[in-house]
Design brief:
This protein has 480 residues and is α+β, with helices and mostly antiparallel strands. The protein has helices spanning 11-23, 44-47, 71-78, 91-97, 122-130, 132-142, 188-198, 204-214, 340-345, 389-395; strands spanning 3-6, 29-34, 60-63, 87-89, 104-109, 112-118, 151-155, 159-164, 170-174, 182-184, 224-232, 235-250, 253-267, 274-278, 287-288, 294-297, 300-306, 318-324, 327-333, 354-357, 360-363, 368-371, 377-379, 403-410, 413-419, 424-430, 435-441, 452-459, 462-467, 473-477. The strands form six sheets. Strands 11, 12, 13, 14, 15, 16, 17, 18 and 19 form a nine-stranded mixed β-sheet that branches. β8 and β9 form a beta hairpin. It is elongated.
Length: 480
């Protein structure tokens, strides 16, 4: 057993040895195992796992000087450790790490404790501890990525997805290898295949789309457009609208109108994209929302729908489709009504964008949390503000006083980011008691926080946001 030093002799030596301990770690991350001699019996299984800790974390046992003379013998005869795991005797570090009488594990990264647990629980958290360097490198790489403030972006474990509202393409950016960024566009092959699925016996529809494409400068809408994106971890889906002309007869007169073919595309990085044509709705009251939000769960496809006639009764906003090979068949309206704020202010369907993390969904301008399993709703203790919706209807300008941008759930805690008309805030709510635990302004105390665009959770304690001026992604660690 390699001893780093006995530091109870003089305070100066204590400081030197602790400093030595940090500068010789070989990385920004360091693991300390604070051993309570009176508690070792509960940690036998964990002691045997010390060999499996990533050596780059330089795991070090920390003891109190009370047992200084017995520690070498204790390590060999009781813990059965050889000399390849160093130990440190430091009362100050021992007390600083914890004041408990239990043996504990402390992961320090960049001079901050990022994780701690009881030593007896090490088997539960070994993988998490060993992945800290990978996660740290990934987070550093994220902040090197440039994103236009005119774009929509999503993130997964390994990728950033950027949809350009100007160029109507999608960048697929590997977080740890930005040089391998790929760009997805609506290709002629994808369009041709879509029309073949929708109209297998009528090639003329595709030809009429091509003619439309050649004179697209005079159209009010793009003949081929990606209208929304959604990701399920590393799997990215794009909602695409294709226009084609059809002839209709009204009272004996023929007119040409533009019809729409809606397509869902799973973008595959190493092979040709997979597509489904979205079947028409057989509903008299609702229409498909081409640019609306969507998600997939348990083999079912959920898309936004709207009422052309506006708000009245039974104001649903979600439809369900099921897959039949390359075709998505409409399977009915989901029986979940719009939250009360829509009815009270007759907001209609212009503002029905939502945020989804199974099994919950939130309409972004509402404080209502919807459980998709039971269809039950929870009214969260958050003010929906005093948005002037009649002004929005008159001028078409959105000036919201409350808007959810993202939420995340861990155990029984809901954490969300919302905009209150002036700034972004973070709130944590206990879903059992439905009480607010904290509600704080989104800030980064370590440096100036520039204008924020699209803040979203990277994990329960981290937030990504796009800097409007720098066009770079920024990362904020939360201490709530």
């Amino acid at each position: 057993m390699k001893q780093i030093g006995i530091t109870h002799m003089k305070p100066f030596i204590t400081f030197i040895l602790i400093f030595y301990c940090f500068i010789n770690s070989g990385s920004a991350a360091r693991l300390f195992i604070r051993v309570s001699v009176m508690d070792y019996k509960s940690s036998y299984n964990s002691i045997s796992l010390l060999d499996k800790i990533d050596k780059k974390l330089d795991p070090t046992l920390v003891y109190h000087s009370t047992y200084a003379s017995e520690i070498k013998r204790f390590n060999v005869e009781i813990l059965h450790l050889d000399d390849h795991i160093p130990f440190l005797i430091s009362d100050s570090l021992y007390d600083k790490l914890s004041d408990k009488n239990y043996s504990t594990v402390h992961l320090i990264n960049k001079n901050k404790e990022v994780f701690t647990c009881l030593l007896k629980d090490l088997p539960l958290y070994l993988n998490k501890i060993n992945n800290v360097l990978t996660e740290s490198n990934k987070n550093d790489s994220i902040t090197d990525i440039n994103i236009s403030s005119n774009s929509t972006y999503l993130h997964s474990e390994h990728f950033i997805f950027e949809y350009s509202n100007i160029f109507h393409d999608i960048k697929i950016i590997p977080i740890n290898n930005i040089a391998k960024t790929q760009i997805f566009k609506v290709t002629p092959d994808l369009v041709k295949k879509s029309f073949k699925i929708a109209f297998p016996d009528d090639t003329g529809v595709y030809q009429s789309h091509l003619r439309l494409l050649n004179k697209s400068n005079g159209l009010m809408a793009l003949p081929e457009e990606i209208t929304n994106i959604w990701n399920d971890n590393d799997s990215l889906y794009a909602l695409i609208t294709l226009l084609y002309p059809t002839v209709v007869n009204i009272k004996g007169n023929e007119y040409t109108k533009l019809s729409k073919l809606n397509v869902l595309c799973l973008i595959l990085r190493e092979s040709e994209a997979r597509i489904w044509v979205i079947g028409a709705m057989n509903s008299l009251k609702y229409d498909f929302d081409e640019g609306g939000d969507f998600f997939i769960h348990n083999g079912k496809y959920y898309f936004s729908v709207f009422k052309p006639g506006g708000i009245d009764v039974d104001n649903f906003f979600l439809g369900q489709w099921i897959s039949e090979n390359e075709y998505l068949k409409f399977n009915g309206i989901v029986n979940i009504d719009l939250p009360k704020i829509f009815i009270d202010h007759r907001i209609d369907y212009d503002l029905t964008s939502f945020t989804y993390h199974w099994p919950y969904l939130m309409l972004n301008i509402s404080n209502t949390l919807i459980d998709l399993r039971s269809k039950e709703t929870i009214t969260l203790p958050l003010s929906e503000g005093k948005t002037n919706f009649s002004k929005i209807r008159e001028k078409g300008k959105v000036d919201l006083k409350f808007s959810i941008t993202d939420f995340i759930i861990k155990d029984h805690l809901l954490r969300l980011i919302y905009y209150n008309g002036k700034s972004y805030k973070i709130s944590t709510i206990d879903l059992v008691s439905v009480k607010k635990i904290n509600d704080e302004a989104l800030s980064n105390k370590s440096k100036f926080l520039e204008n924020i665009v699209s803040p979203q959770f990277l994990d329960f304690n981290s937030i990504l946001y796009l800097g409007k001026k720098s066009n770079k992604l920024h990362l904020i660690r939360l201490n709530l």
